[in-house]
Amino acid sequence: MSRKREIEKKLKTINAEIGDVIRVICGKEEYEGVLMPHHEFSQENIITIKLKTGYNIGIAVDEKTEITLIQKQKTMEKPVKKIPFDPKKPTISIIGMGGTIACYVDYRTGAVHPASSAEELAFSVPEIFDLCNVRSQVAYQMLSENIEVTQWQRLATLIAEELNNGVTGVVIPHGTDTLGYTAAALSFFLKNLSGPVVLFGAQRSSDRPSSDAAQNLIAAVTVAATSDLGEVVVVMHGEISDAFSTIHRGTKVRKFHTSRRDAFQSVNDVPLGRVENGKLSLQTSYKKKTTGPVIVDSAMDQDVGIVYFYPGLKPEDIPQKKGVILAGTGLGHVSAKLLPCITSRINNGSVFVMTSQCLFGRVNMYVYSVGRDLIKAGVFSGEDMLPETAYIKLMWVLAHKKTRQEVESLMRENLAGEISERTRTDAFLSMRNETTQSEC
Amino acid sequence: MSRKREIEKKLKTINAEIGDVIRVICGKEEYEGVLMPHHEFSQENIITIKLKTGYNIGIAVDEKTEITLIQKQKTMEKPVKKIPFDPKKPTISIIGMGGTIACYVDYRTGAVHPASSAEELAFSVPEIFDLCNVRSQVAYQMLSENIEVTQWQRLATLIAEELNNGVTGVVIPHGTDTLGYTAAALSFFLKNLSGPVVLFGAQRSSDRPSSDAAQNLIAAVTVAATSDLGEVVVVMHGEISDAFSTIHRGTKVRKFHTSRRDAFQSVNDVPLGRVENGKLSLQTSYKKKTTGPVIVDSAMDQDVGIVYFYPGLKPEDIPQKKGVILAGTGLGHVSAKLLPCITSRINNGSVFVMTSQCLFGRVNMYVYSVGRDLIKAGVFSGEDMLPETAYIKLMWVLAHKKTRQEVESLMRENLAGEISERTRTDAFLSMRNETTQSEC
User: Fold this and answer.
1) How far apart are CA B429 and CA B427, in angstroms?
2) Pairwise CB contact (< 8 Å): B430 & A430
3) What pTM does this model have?
4) Which chain B residue has its CA at the smallest distance from A329's CA?
């Protein structure tokens, strides 16, 4: 019998399951904590428990190790009562998409799995019922890197249904990895918004003391229930501290850090506003909500790709697609040796749109000769759009317009705040001279 | 005769050439300024002059327009004297690569062309002779988007020759578009550096009042002539003002803005130091210069590419190369549907290295299931390396190591400051609450 099966048998004998509190005695050492799932990278003879301090430790188990059951896992408190309803308060709708934000129920085991319902998410932060009534549904339980056009389209339909049924706003818990892509897609899909559409997520799950889940949920609900925004926005931590949450325009936001809570930053635009100490403030111009109805226009031509230029990129590395977003260097350049290929692809009907891998600033292909050659070849300017936003937009535009002229014209038009008229000096990130060093 | 030829004839009659001051009288309007080259996007009947204010205007010319010559262009003052030599001062070497930094000679016409020699560049900012003696050569006159492995290799050889011939340091004027890639390449190529290797550029050419060319040159020369750095660094404006120049480690820096002078920012590392009011300060640990000799080890396997993940990326969009840098989402993820392709490519001998399109933060593929699946498939972690630095490094590593184990081990080793041991909270950019708005 393998060591792993042996441990499993030992645990079964004492009726200990994952989530129960157990005591493990190995010689003179004694550990007490919550039994965790066997980690697939651990050796077979290792049992993992989460200590009261919150740390997980792995303990090598042999024949002499004693394991005793201290306490069965408390049954999760299910929302036995119905969600409260107060006719004087606005009603918002939560539409779950999965991600770290929806993982609070696993705090005992530390494993990351989605919650089973959006109600559970709402009940985990009951403060939101002070602000509004809550309706909720789970659209998807997905890791966000697997979310694509199909999911964006269904989500847009659900949002429109909810708003057209009278909710004040919609909040969408979403994995942070591709949250920016979904926000951009919804921005182009949803017209005549009668309420705010607020995407948010969490960089740390609720079992961690540094979790941003609760603050982001409360801030998102505050925006959805109390603002007059008629836009798709992203609400996430504004600083490494819990000082405030920032409201970003859906077409102008990007995840800039793998793990920080203030990972999301606006690009080429100042944020729309913030939620600080429960107070909403909108600091710049925005589209106001309408009286409806919300219209969904979500046709997409998926034959589009993004290529980041690098020295050494060869013509054959540019995918053969109907639409190509180039993320060129600087003001919008690629090496001269790519020109013949780009020219011939455009002559054969492809659409190329130039953005910059700098991410900040505006494409200007008139300054240097290679840029002018790209314009001559028929490459369109992506202005100051993020490459990812230009990608979403081009899929949308190609599904709506047929001729090159129509496509170019619509790509240059500011449809959903994705193109800034002028370049603001305050819409850039700089290194702060922070000196503190702590968990980030 | 076309209108353009007509204008050319008119100018020839009065012996006016590009760069000369002319007066144009159209009816009641009178303009005086420097004759500019005909812009290829201007209509044929347009003549362009640069006014004293620095602005260019286009004037429609017809039969009645009078053009008179006011002053022939002053002949460019060539360095008739030899570059001064003071045996008490250190000697640095300037090795020109082209780019905006080398375009000062065209300030009268406003067109962007490289200078004809690095001496001209040095003489344009004579303050540097107070600091040191200058040797100079032009390695290339290239727009930086065309610079590739071959140019990096020759540049490394020239740098090593200069340092081994006794210069104190080397400064390299370079186009900003791919300056970061060149800095990373030199960081891996050059071993046992006996002096600083300083790359710098200009975001604005010298004809503009906001040019950063002179300050960046002086700061770069200060670092090369007076610091004890034994690293490859990038020196560029530290702020939108002229307050100071920042010294970035060559493997940790990236161009983040298409046009701002403070476009270059360190990623996952604090800058090495700064030059402020002519004073050099180094603020963090760095590799000190040796007594030499400098060794060049520049073998590269160029069969490597970078792929930025996006929702909708298909297996066939991943180039068939020996080495692939993935710029995944978040902690290092791609969609589950790419896994079979990645697994089979790795089984066929390809090397995949995961970096994050967040750019900031560290890859950690152990947190979520897709990350663990990628590790199982054999994807290596790029730790906190920039995708572009990981790309350069993988080309270098593949040319030096044969087995998967050796390649993985070297990719994980910190060879040139490209991997930070720990994640610093102060090595992240945040939106500054700047309120001023001016030309950026």
Assistant:
1) 7
2) yes
3) 0.82
4) B177
Contact (CB<8Å) B332/A148: no
Are residues B234 and B199 in contact, defined by beta-carbon separation less than 8 angstroms? yes
Cβ–Cβ < 8 Å for B237, B297: no
DSSP code, position A33:
E
Q: Who contacts A314 (Cβ-Cβ below 8 Å, separation ≥6)?
A: none
- Known catalytic residue: A226? no
Lowest mean pLDDT, pick from A39-48, B145-154, B256-265, B395-404 = A39-48
B242 Cβ neighbours under 8 A, 6+ residues apart:
B212, B215
Whole-angstrom distance, CA of residue B249 vs CA of residue B245:
13
Cβ neighbours for A112, distance < 8 A, ≥ 6 positions apart: A100, A103, A106, A205, B367, B368
Q: Burial of A81 by CB count in 10 Å (0-12 exposed, 13-18 middle, 19+ buried)?
A: exposed
Chain B: closest CA distance from residue A92 (Å): 29
Query: Tell me, what's the pLDDT at A100?
Result: 62
Domains of chain A with bracketed CATH: 3-71 (2.30.30.520), 91-296 (3.40.50.1170), 304-412 (3.40.50.40)
Please count the residues of chain A: 440
What stretch of H or E contains B172? strand B169-173
pLDDT digits (tens, 9 = 90+) for A386-401: 999 999 999 999 999 9
Any A CB within 8 A of B340 CB? no
End-to-end CA distance of chain A: 43
Contact check, Cβ <8 Å, A143/B361:
no
Give chain A positions within 8 Å (CB) of B395: 312
Token pair listed for A286: 């925005």
Provide the annotated active-site residues of B: 100, 176-177, 255
The alpha-helical segments, DSSP class H, found in A38-77 are none
Q: In the predicted model, is pLDDT for residue A424 greater than 50?
A: yes
- B66 within 8 A of B24, measured Cβ to Cβ: yes
Q: Are B361 and B425 in contact (CB under 8 A)?
A: no
Active site residue A255: yes
- Report yes or no: A173 and A101 within 8 Å, Cβ to Cβ: yes
